[in-house]
Amino acid sequence: MSILVNKNSKVIVQGFTGKEGSFHASQMIEYGTQVVGGVTPGKSGEFHLDRPVFNTVEDAVKATGADVSIIFVPPAFAADAIMEAADAGVKLIVAITEGIPVNDMIYAKEFIKDRNVRLIGPNCPGLITPDECKVGIMPGFIHRKGRVGIISRSGTLTYEAVNQITQLGYGQSTAVGIGGDPVNGSSHLDIMRLFNEDPDTDGVIMIGEIGGSNEEICAEWVRDNMKKPVVGFIAGQTAPPGRRMGHAGAIISGGKGTAAEKMRVMSACGIEVVKSPADIGIAMVSLLKSKGLVSA
Amino acid sequence: MNLHEYQAKEIIKGFGVPIQEGIVAETVEQAIEGAAKLYPDGPDGKWFIIKAQIHAGGRGKGGGVKLAKSLAQVEEIAGKILGMTLVTPQTGPEGKVVHKVLVAQDMFYPGASEPKEYYLSITLDRERGRDVLIASAEGGMSIEEVAEEHPDKIIRESIDPMLGIQPFQCRKIAFKMGFTGDAFKSAVSFIAKIYKAYKATDCSLIEINPMLKTSDDKIIAVDCKINLDDNALFRHKDYEAMRDILEEAPLEVEASQYNLNYIKLDGNVGCMVNGAGLAMATMDMIQLSGGEPANFLDVGGGASPETVEKGFRIILKDPNVKAILVNIFGGIVRCDRVANGIVEAYKIIGDIQIPIIVRLQGTNAIEAAKIINESGLKVMSAITLEEAANKVKEALA
Questions:
Q1: What CATH homologous superfamily does B21-106 map to?
Q2: Which one, out of A73, B254, B255, B299, has a CA that is 20 to 30 A from the CA of A8?
Q3: Distance between CA atoms of residues A217 and A236, nearest Å
Q4: How far apart (Å, rounded) are the C-alpha atoms in residues B156 and A273?
Q5: Is B154 within 8 Å of chain A by CB?
Q6: Domain topology for B249-396
Q7: Which of A213, A210, A206 is nearest to A191 (CA)?
Q8: What residues of chain A lie within 8 A of the CB of B234, using their CB?
Q9: ipTM above 0.85 for this complex
Q10: What pTM value is reported for the model?
Q11: 158-217 in A: which are within 8 Å (CB) of B?
């Protein structure tokens, strides 16, 4: 098991023949992901990386049976690409694109709401089930098959947590980067629910950032429903209020969404909160050991 | 991107929103000239409001908004405000230098009814992924205070993203704000136009405080604050010209020219990191190691020798920096290449007097540490975050 993607997932790439799409598609193929084709409007009939190219996501899904789409389309067209994928009936959309206008995402989110599809991202590194399926831009080799689930709003900070777990001799069931934008497809809570139900996940690391109240909402759910230990870290404890720190979502306003407040709520809800990013891995491992869940 | 009050008012006026008219001035002469032309029937006996134009709220509290009762007073007050360092609750203790003033009409003239101030804003409700309108009959003051002390006086109305704000919603809000008669009709139209402006300009915030009911029942935007969504600026080339780099820290402007995301802070340990989340986490770690972060600097995914060199140069321009921590998680980009870039950049810059700690983790991290250690430079290498934190501690000791 694992969540969202596994060795049976069939992936298409939107923005397949572009620079980013080409590079990361070949990396995914190398990792062992079943990349079954791609979409670039106007290039139907061509082959790229030995895979067929289609004009529309609908054509690609019909021909390949793809159930996952990863999006590398430039920001001005990315929300449209998300809607196209949802309309074509894929089950999971992973939007890597950074810099999509907020208004566009509001429309895209509304469009996919009543369709049977899950969106991860945008502005995210994607997700990976080690040794089975990588749908994203993360370095595959730092991952190791295991039983720790990871949910994070950040890219490189996710790699940091993954790497700590791997270096300690453990591994990940699935690692999911949900992205740092103010309007995104899946929240911490959405992914936390999936890990709670996954028999192959023993514990979860949740990495958050200043801004919004996504982490607090998830923490309250964890308090009432979570059957597994959770370790938490919030980036931005030293960020000054009101300043934009790279991620559009990471803005603290009016005392809400500060790191201190998030950490306080998470602790109060029974999450093991670490102050230093260096302690994420070790905290998870100690917690698993104390619960008798020592198997890697 | 933030806009000045005068720019924001110009934009909403384009959508038919009635505003307090004004003329922007960079010199006292321009202020007097503007004031003389401000009222259609001439300046005699008229009053003027002189407002400092800076990217921060709370200007009135800091002495940046004053009433002038004659052209002579315009001269005197504009002279005082232009060039002053204005300190408000939002500028920080160092304040901001005022380069422009807005000379505006006085809207609090006497008449049949009492003028009254209201509050109106539209912004993104992140939890719901849609826009929300916030209004209150308690305008003119800090809305945070109202929200805290009298949450019942805050009106919230969620807006359907597909349909936009509906007439019944505008009426509902206007009734809840307490408008009646002609003022009610004007308020309904005002609210609808503000929403139209909000959507059409790709704002992340539009705030009218105060929204004024005049003594003759007109509804006017006396102040307006707009934050534009940077991601949508490609659709609004005309707004890009409204950027005022005098409002931004010089080092931040320089960094943005190199596509580096840099924010200057007040600490003593500089840092250069790839990825915004890891950059914030690195700043947190610096504090836990006994230092204070001097900046936020995200060099993005690439971390090429050029970006590393530019990053070093910008950090080194800050005299408070006593040590630099480079924290790169090499995934797609290989650590040995980044290490070579750092050595190269170090040699090009030459004489660096402060200790540098380079933490490279990921692909070829061990080779990278070797390159750093054998470079003969005063650079310490680290592989784990913990090691890096300890070396920052050592460097500050």
A1: ATP-grasp fold, A domain (3.30.1490.20)
A2: A73
A3: 18
A4: 33
A5: no
A6: Rossmann fold (3.40.50)
A7: A206
A8: 75-76
A9: yes
A10: 0.91
A11: 158-160, 163, 167, 180, 182-183, 207, 209-214, 217
